[in-house]
Amino acid sequence: MDNGKVKTYHINMLKRYFHRENKTDSTAGDRNKQDQVEDEQVHQAASVACVIEDDEEADGMTVSDAEILPLYNLKQKETVEDVVINPDLTAEQQTEVKQLLSEYREIFSDVPTVTHLIEHKVELTENEPVRHKPYPVPYKMQEVIDKEIDDMLSMGVIEHSEAPYASPLVLVKKPDGSYRVCVNFKELKRITVFDPEPMMSPDDISEVIRKSVLQYI
Questions:
Q1: CA distance 191 to 131
Q2: What is the pLDDT of residues 143-156, one digit of tens each?
Q3: Of 12, 56, 195, 204, which has the maximum CB count within 10 A?
Q4: Which of 73-77, 121-125, 199-203 has the weakest average pLDDT?
């Protein structure tokens, strides 16, 4: 690409390009010329491609590799002891903060975990399980998938399942050279009951947070 980045496109999406002359009228002569042009195949290619690289670009701004934050840590590097307490607080206030931090010390970690406070239930329109065969994966990439799956299993964010449903994995290359493991739930989404719950805009969410903060100031 012009910006120096390398993008990967799937070759199966390449389409043969047929050149067409612009027509100003519908006379018989032009019709014959049009038929002649349609018989000529110009060997050029135009592509409608599926980009499998995450360029991390937004509003025309490119995020540099140095600014990209890691998705998660496998081993805990930060604990409740790393929380910085404002020195401007009184001794009594600092004691209360320390007690609060100690009570909820398990959440002050840079290793992601799961919550069991709420569960999401997917309602389907059909009882027939959706099964999609896995996408072909290069042998080199299979090692990446195995490592990511082992890491997520060790953290408890995924678990083994014998469910009759199956959706294929997709590897998305990130700007830092690592890969993000995703799942294509297209077929499952096709039979999922649509939930028309409206989502709050970022401005509305910010206003709710602002009002909540003002209650403690």
A1: 12
A2: 888 988 898 888 88
A3: 56
A4: 73-77
d(CA 152, CA 114): 11
Alpha-carbon torsion (56, 60, 66, 72), positive or negative: negative
Contact 42, 82 (CB under 8 A): no
User: 121-217: CATH homologous superfamily?
Assistant: HIV Type 1 Reverse Transcriptase, subunit A, domain 1 (3.10.10.10)
Query: What are the DSSP calls for 161-208, one per residue?
Result: ---S-B--EEEEE-TTS-EEEEE--HHHHHTBPP--PPPPPHHHHHHH
pLDDT at 35: 52
Q: What is the CA radius of gyration of the chain?
A: 27
What pLDDT score does 190 carry?
92
Look up residue 42 and give its two tokens. 């110009």
Q: What is the rounded CA–CA span in Å between residue 136 and residue 113? A: 30
Per the CB < 8 A criterion, the answer to whether 82 and 73 are in contact is no
Token pair belonging to 177: 């050279």
| Per-residue confidence (pLDDT) for residue 29, from 0 to 100 | 54
Q: How many CA atoms lie within 13 A of 161 on its CB side?
A: 9
pTM score? 0.50
Exposure letters 131-155 (e unless 16+ CB within 10 A, then b):
eeeeeeeeeeeeebeeebeeebeee
